[in-house]
Amino acid sequence: MTPDAGLYLAGLVAEAIFAGLLIYRRVFRVLPLFSSYIFWSLINDAGGFYLVRHYPSQEINVFFAAAVIDSIFVFCVLIELSMSVLRPVRSMLPRGAIVGVAVLIALVCAAIWPFAKAPGFEQLQVPQSRMIFHLQMTFSAVRILFFLGLAACSQWLSIGWRDRELQIATGFGFFSLVSLSAAFYHLSQSVGSPQYHTVDLMVAASYDFSIAYWIVSFAQEVPERRQFTPEMQSFLLAVAGGARNARISFTNSSDSKVKPK
Q1: Do 79 and 151 belong together in one domain?
Q2: Helix 164-186 crosses helix 194-218 at what angle (to 10 degrees)?
Q3: Which of 29, 34, 86, 119 is most enclosed, with most CB atoms within 10 A?
């Protein structure tokens, strides 16, 4: 068996085991989007291999569609993780808090998008290839930033390495860091160089490692979620209140500009 086939089969088996573990632990009730993302990844890896093998002329289109769906999933999962982190004070937040979180993540993606390039990016002639690279780089960077932010603020947010949110962010962060580094390294290589394929194998191995890390982590009981410190609760409520007041002020300002009939 070749290293490619070995890593591919190991990834499929790991994804299948993890998907079963998510069902057994009933994680889909707490984190339905993340659970759906893992199920999608399993279907995509198996189905994508079948489609590329039987319809080689559509390979780039298959990869492009998978990259778009994957990016949408990641965006939604990051929103879900953010709201899960805020669970201890969620009842005190305004109803539109999830919209605010979504807008914040979208703004981060928009800020990264213009810079998600590297030397050699312009050499990609196929539009789908450029978009795939752009999406992968953007969301790899966003996942890394999400992990770093969550890890840096773990004490304030009262979460630890045994909490699901930080475990998921860690797996995302590790795989994304390897994937991002590999993509930048590829742009300085020729496709046929011996190191090119070796780097791809390292990326596949890092994904398998992340899944294995999640399996080990999710196999353990999750501790009861700690409450935020009073200082952190006050800060979050102040931010939410400020956003609400700003929205009300904007609405009133807009209404005052409307002339009565």
Answers
A1: yes
A2: 180
A3: 34
Nearest-angstrom CA–CA distance, 35 and 58: 28
**CB crowding 77-108: b at 16 or more within 10 Å, else e:** bbbbbbbbbbebbeeebeeebbebbbeebeeb
| pLDDT surpasses 90 at 125 | no
Number of domains in the chain: 2
pLDDT at 82: 94
160 shares its domain with 248: no
User: Torsion over CA of 24, 25, 30 and 34, rounded to 10 degrees?
Assistant: -70
pTM: 0.85
- Range of 186's domain? 3-220
* Shared-domain flag, residues 195 and 236: no
User: Do the Cβ atoms of 105 and 141 come closer than 8 Å?
Assistant: no
| Domain shared by 154 and 64, yes or no | yes
Q: What is the largest CA-CA distance in the chain?
A: 78
Residue owning tokens 């931010």: 239
Q: Are residues 167 and 241 in the same domain?
A: no
Q: How confident is the model at residue 1 (pLDDT cuts 50, 70, 90)?
A: confident
For residue 203, the number of C-alpha atoms closer than 13 Å in the C-beta half-sphere is 18
Same domain? 171 vs 237: no
- Angstrom CA distances, 31 to 43, 82, 219, 239, 250, stand at 19, 11, 16, 25, 34
Tell whether 161 and 186 lie within a shared domain: yes
pLDDT digits (tens, 9 = 90+) for 228-245: 766 676 766 676 665 555
172 neighbors 82 (Cβ within 8 angstroms): no
Statement to judge: residues 160 and 258 lie in one domain: no
